[in-house]
Structure formats: C-alpha cells, structure tokens
TrEMBL record:
It comes from the Eukaryota. Residues 126-248 form the Fatty acid hydroxylase domain. Transmembrane segments: none annotated. It comes from Lobosporangium transversale. GO terms for molecular function: iron ion binding; oxidoreductase activity. The lineage of its organism: Eukaryota, Fungi, Fungi incertae sedis, Mucoromycota, Mortierellomycotina. GO terms for biological process: lipid biosynthetic process. Residues 262-288 are annotated as: Disordered. This is Fatty acid hydroxylase domain-containing protein. Residues 264-277 have a biased composition (Low complexity). The keyword Transmembrane applies. It is found in: Membrane. One of its GO terms (cellular component) is membrane. Its main location: membrane.
C-alpha cells in the first residue's frame, strides 16, 4: 500500500505539490491540511463502521464481531458524537497550529523535494518507537487511581468499543495520549509534511480499527485493545512490546487458561485435604 502511495506520489505528486505550494502559505498547508486530512480519514472509517454496527450491513461481517452479545445502538453513537466533535475542534485543531510552529522550528516541512521510500521507512521506525513509548506510558499514567477517575474513566465507558470511541475521551487524554505520541515522532525526525499526513492516516486508521469491535480480515488484530476495554488492566500499548516487557500483556485465552489452572490447583488442594483429614464417619478405634 505504501509503495503504491509513493509510486503515485512520484508520478503525479511533484506537479500537484508545487501547485499546492504556489496556492497556499505554510500557515494554511500545515495546520489546516493536517486537520482536514485527519477529519476525512476519521469520518470515512467511522461512517462505514456505523453502517455495519447500526444497520448490520453487510450482515456476513457480523461473524467477525469480537463481543457478539454487546450490540451497538444509536444511543452509543449519539453519546460519543458530541465528545468526539469537541476533541476534534477544541483540541486537535488548535494542536495542529502548535504542530505547525514546532515543525517550522525544526526545519522546512513543506519542501519542494518529496520524501523517498527510504526516508519513509527509516522515519516510520522512529515514529513507531515514539508512539509505543508515548502511548504506553501515557496510558498507564492515566490508569493511576488518582487520574483514572478524573480523566481516563470516560474512555472506558465502552467495555465493548466501537470505531468512533477511539477518541471518546477527556480532552487532556486526547492531547497527551493520542495526539502527542502521534505527532512527536515527525517533529523529532524533521519529517516532510506529506510523511506526517501518511503517518497520521495510518495511526488514526489503526486507532479506529483497535476500537471497531470487529476482527475483520486483512486488518491488524484489534483483540488486544478490545480486551483492554473489557478488563482494564491489560494491554496498555499499541504494539505490545512494552506490555511484554512489563508483564501487562493479556488475552481472553490467557485468562481462560489461568482460570483453568487455578481451578485444577483448587481441586487438587481439596483432594489433598480430604486425603489427610480422617473420615469422622468411621469409628476411631485403635487396633490392638
Ligand atoms: Zn481504547
Ligand atoms: Zn485504558
């Protein structure tokens, strides 16, 4: 997909990009371009998922539902919509102006020269590292009892999440946990704005997929984050590396196995106790 994007970009991109640069100043391209691209990407996926959730169309996709007993309703969407719009217009939009200032300080993010596949590949690795570190530790911080009640509890309203709930959260959480880890990598690596837009599209699509409630073919597995919404104390990170390192990784299968092991241990302990304690029903007579 990335190579198709870059093939397209290098065939038709230079002319298109130079016409954009000739038509708009940086102060418009960076903040407004970033905001518009994230809006289009977000509502594209969320609209498709709303049709799947609410109209149950296509019905055949419902076999991929992760928690089939929890069926999304209009009320779930209505509740999320207002918070999502607030996060987009009152948090993400001002943040994109901050991003413009930061990117400008680091270099020229709207250069005429387009990023190459090599640029993207090495920068993508950096972005993933920053995202994993930023999201994991930010998310764990918000699970601290003092912060959880005030901030993160809102995002955990959906124990069986839906796509739009990816950014159903407190504005502070949206800025610290969602926007900063996503934008920090491109700022640190002095990326081209087109690389940032591609990364935002990938990151946002992944966040929606993680909350969509369906394990759809060809898409990365959303099971880890879906499970986080169910049990709260597992799978804090987006990649799973830090969860593995901090022993916070979990799944429904692991929980079922653990339950079975505990049950087997309890049954064994009860059998041992019965073997040691003498049967009081029998007369306790010493044989001579
Ligand atoms: Zn979530
Ligand atoms: Zn959480």
């Amino acid at each position: 997909m990335t190579s198709v994007f870059f093939g397209f970009l290098h065939l038709y991109g230079p002319q298109f990009w130079s016409s954009i640069l000739a038509s708009y100043p940086k102060s418009v391209i960076i903040p407004w371009g970033t905001f518009i691209i994230s809006q289009v990407g977000f509502w594209f996926w969320v609209s498709l998922l709303a049709v799947l959730d609410l109209c149950q169309f296509p019905k055949s996709f419902w076999r991929y539902k992760i928690q089939p007993l929890k069926v999304p309703t209009w009320e779930w969407y209505r509740k999320a919509l207002w918070v999502v719009l607030q996060n987009q217009f009152l948090v993400a939009l001002p943040s994109s102006f901050l991003l413009w200032k930061l990117m400008d300080l680091r270099g020229n993010p709207v250069g005429m020269e387009l990023p190459t596949v090599w640029d993207l590949s090495k920068e993508l690795i950096g972005f993933l590292v920053v995202e994993e570190l930023g999201f994991y530790y930010g998310h764990r911080l918000f699970h601290h009892p003092k912060l959880y009640k005030r901030i993160h509890k809102k995002h955990h309203l959906y124990t069986a999440p839906i796509g739009i709930a990816a950014i159903y959260c407190h504005p502070i959480e949206h800025f610290v946990c969602n926007l900063c880890p996503l934008a920090l990598g491109p700022v640190l690596m002095k990326s081209h704005i087109l690389t940032l837009w591609l990364w935002i599209t990938v990151g946002q699509t992944n966040a929606i997929n993680s909350h969509c409630g369906f394990h759809l073919p060809l898409f990365p597995s959303p099971l880890a984050h879906d499970y986080h919404h169910e049990v709260f104390n597992k799978n804090f990170g987006p990649l799973g590396v830090l969860d593995w390192l901090h022993d916070t990784a979990g799944s429904r299968e692991m929980a079922a196995e653990k339950k079975q092991r505990e049950l087997a241990a309890t049954t064994q302990a009860q059998t041992n106790v019965q073997a040691v304690v003498p049967d009081s029903s029998k007369p306790n007579v010493k044989e001579v």
